[in-house]
Amino acid sequence: SNWPISARSRSAIIMQSRLDELKLASAESSPANKKEASVEMVKIDVDDNVDEAIAAFQGIMTGIQKIEKNIEVINALKQRSRQEVKDDAQRKIMEDLDRAMVASKRDARFVKSELDRMTIENQKYIAAHEGSTSAQMRKNLLNTHARHFQQVRDNFSQK
Asked: Does residue 62 form part of some domain?
């Protein structure tokens, strides 16, 4: 029974042996083997990060909404002004219009300063948490709010 084994047969035997080893290793690590496997779960509180990031932009969003509301008021007052012929009513409309314009400019300055502040905060946060989901989310929120503010400012300038 000492027949010479060809190189091809030897290769097949080695591969079969390796396959048997892998099957054995796999069986030993399978749950059916009833070995205790310690798995450590890592919980990431993404919800807290999201809530915190969104809360930071709440003041900016409120300011933008005030500006949008003032733009509606300004448009309504301008419409009334075109239809009003009495001087007293015209003067009252102009006073209201002036108040709405001043409020809009004040809100715009506030939103701009908050966006500037958030830009600096985000730069620090991103530097400390580079590549994290939270850093990307904060960057996206800042860009979204800045774009929204720019659109509202453009609408205000056209009025």
From this structure: yes
What's the CA gap between 57 and 46, in Å, rounded? 17
Where is average pLDDT lowest: 15-24, 78-87, 88-97, 150-159?
A: 15-24
Q: In this structure, is residue 59 part of a structural domain?
A: yes
CB-neighbour burial class of residue 7 (10 A; exposed 0-12, middle 13-18, buried 19+): exposed
Q: From CA 112, how far away is CA 28, in angstroms rounded? A: 63
Tell me the average pLDDT across 116-120.
96
Question: Is there a contact between 145 and 60 (Cβ–Cβ < 8 Å)?
Answer: yes
Residues 6 or more apart in contact with residue 5 via CB below 8 angstroms: 13
H helical segments located in the chain: 7-29, 46-56, 58-83, 87-128, 133-158
CATH number of the domain residue 83 falls in? 1.20.58.70
The residue that leads in pLDDT, 5 or 52, is 52
Which is nearest to 69 in space by CA: 91, 99, 112?
A: 99
Q: Indicate the angle between helix axes 133-158 and 87-128, nearest 10 degrees.
A: 160
- Kindly report whether the global pTM for this prediction surpasses the value 0.85: no
